[in-house]
Amino acid sequence: MTLSPSRNLLVMNIQMTVSLVATIILVRWLFPGIAQAEFAVAVLPVAVLHMFRFIGMTVVMPGQLDDAISHKAKVEIAVGDLIVALTAVLLTFAIVEGFSDGTVRVLAWIFVITCLADMAVIQRHFIGEQFWNKQMGVVWLFQVLLSAPMVLGEFFVLYRLVAG
């Protein structure tokens, strides 16, 4: 029995709310001093998490997303996730190798701008094609489990860049 689109959206919102609360609890537990840490130390966990965004490329694999979802949407989402992963790899490399604070901040800006652009593309397709009422395979897991920590992380990096 298929749920109605409004019920699917309700279920997704409940799942994402639980993911958001769980993310906040885990961050407070695992990284209690992250807000006060120096910039590179604070953004490293976010960059490390985003290095694995290339997994989002699975949307172009057969059977992962409903055939009713346009090929254009699948390709744009896949390419965006790959670009975010690459910017996260560069940022993480710069932090781990001890690059200057200025270089790390420039790479963090590139990372955040790429993340926000990718998020806009994903949401445009997600809303326009009503993904919540389509067959999504394992992509649903990424949407409800990982979107909250990733988006929170992106805004945390942006906050740290702007706040200093």
Structure description:
The chain is mainly α and 164 residues long. The protein has one domain (5-163). Helices cover 71% and strands 0% of the residues. Helix 1 (5-30) crosses helix 5. The chain starts with a helix and ends with a helix.
Give a brief rundown of this model.
About 70% of the residues lie in helices and about 0% in strands.
Key attributes of the depicted protein:
164 residues; mainly alpha; 5 helices
Helix content: over 70%
Main β sheet profile: none
**Terminus-to-terminus distance:** 52 Å
Radius of gyration: 17 Å
- Total helices: the number is 5
The global form is globular
| Secondary structure: number of strands | 0
Order of helices and strands: HHHHH
Structural class: mainly alpha
Mean pLDDT: 91
Oligomer description: single chain
Count of domain modules: 1
The amount of beta strand, in percent, is under 5%
Low-confidence stretches: none
